[in-house]
Amino acid sequence: MPDVSSQLRNCCVRRSQAFYPEGVSRQSAHQQSADQESAVTSHVFDRTAAERVMHRAVRLAADQELEDSVDGISEQALIEAAAELGVDISVVQQAAVEERLGLLAQKPQRGDSLVGPAVVTVSRIVPGRPEDVLESVDSWLRKAGSLQRQRSGALSAKYSQRTGLAASVDRSARSVMGTEELGLLPSLSVSTAAAQPGPGGEPSALVALSADLHAERSAAVIGAAGTAILGSAFAMCGVVAAVASASGGSTPEKLAGIGLAMLALLGIPISCALGYGVLRLRARRISTTEDSLNGILDQVATGTLPSSTFGHMADRLLRSLRSLRSPRPGPPV
């Protein structure tokens, strides 16, 4: 890849040679150019204006000829540009690793703002090598999440819910104790990648947990649509029945039929509201899933080791016995 700074310098030299007027020395021209450059660089853009300038520059670069355009932007250049805009370097480094893992390439689907996304992903930079971080996540998912590993690579793995009586008992016990971290997620993917070392040179890695909720999202959409359509259909049937019963009758009977028809029409917006409620309920559960996944990352980041279900129950029972045996304070003397 050609050096961007050298290209820019060569371009400036060619432009200066082409526009030297006759009778003007190179030294005086350079002095004028320096004065103009100082006037330009003295201007300070706010953050919004700087973003507009960067977007415009990218569009202009895309219109350049192939031999004059830059094939890509280095991560260090992005970090320096973000630092100039006042963005924390650590978040830029995390975003760069997420891009390398393909997390930023996921496009939102239509209706995500209403029903929630089909894939929930959380990521974080934690201390340790990627292999060690993956092993720690694996321990938490298998012991604390009632998941089983389907396949794994050097820096990634995929999990699904364990089936069978033992797994059901384990999940039920965790639900009773309030320690069920991942609920009933059908599948979960884990990816790790090396990140920038810490201030002391210690290794760090980005770990990403992605829960695939396509089936659950489709079920919510079908349920909401079915509720709205069936409710509206029953409401229309009520309207037709009320109008049919009132036709040919006396005036009071016709008025009663019209009133019943108007009441039946209320079933249409009520059914649509119920369908909307089904979608919003699913969207609220997404935040619970994100909290559960972030809880796993919290434990991994602090280096806490997972405990089995029966070990957790034994610890709680032991704490309860200790609280019962502890002497209670007597009445004041």
How would you portray this structure in words?
With 333 residues, the protein is α+β, with helices and mostly antiparallel strands. Among the domains are: 77-103 and 115-216, TATA-Binding Protein, CATH 3.30.310; 220-307. The chain is 60% helix and 11% strand. It contains twelve helices and five strands. Strands 1-5-4-3-2 form a five-stranded antiparallel beta sheet, with helices on both faces. Strand 2 (147-152) and strand 3 form a beta hairpin. Helix 7 crosses helix 11 (267-302), helix 9 (214-246) runs antiparallel to helix 10 and helix 9 (214-246) runs antiparallel to helix 11. The radius of gyration is 32 Å and the shape is flat.
From the structure above, extract its key features:
333 residues, alpha+beta, TATA-Binding Protein, 12 helices, 5 strands, disordered N terminus
Summed up, the helix count is 12
The chain-level mean pLDDT equals 75
State the major sheet.
Answer: 5 strands, antiparallel
Poorly predicted spans: 1-27, 36-41
Shape: flat
What is the highest CATH level, the class of one domain?
Alpha Beta
Strand content: 5-15%
The tally of strands reads: 5
> Structural class of the secondary elements?
alpha+beta
Strand order of the largest sheet: 1-5-4-3-2
Query: What would the CATH topology of one domain be?
Result: TATA-Binding Protein
Q: Span between N and C termini?
A: 85 Å
Mind sketching the topology for me?
Layout: H1 4-18, H2 26-41, H3 47-62, H4 75-84, H5 89-100, H6 112-115, E1 119-127, H7 130-143, E2 147-152, E3 156-161, H8 165-177, E4 187-194, E5 204-212, H9 214-246, H10 251-265, H11 267-302, H12 309-325
Antiparallel strand pairs: 1-5, 2-3, 3-4, 4-5
Helix pairs in contact: 4-5, 7-11, 9-10, 9-11
